[in-house]
Amino acid sequence: MEMWTxxxxxxxxxxLSTDASTVVDGELIERRDVxxxxxxxxxxxxxxxxxxxxxxxxxxxxxxxEEVLLDxxxxxxxxxxxxxxxx
Length: 87
What we know:
mainly beta; 6-stranded antiparallel sheet; globular
């Protein structure tokens, strides 16, 4: 498992990458682009989402809006890339 945390004075975002065999509970986030499925992470506070890419489970959480997390997750390189999570 690998984890990165990005933060400033008011915002915090954590990106986690682990084997896709890990079980996570969530519901599909309805979007226009169905080829890029994201699931809402069920958690007690903050927003979070997850998706599977190249056999990796990618979890993105933070104290930002779900839309910010969706935009960020859409901009991430593929999970196998040496540049993951930052291009």
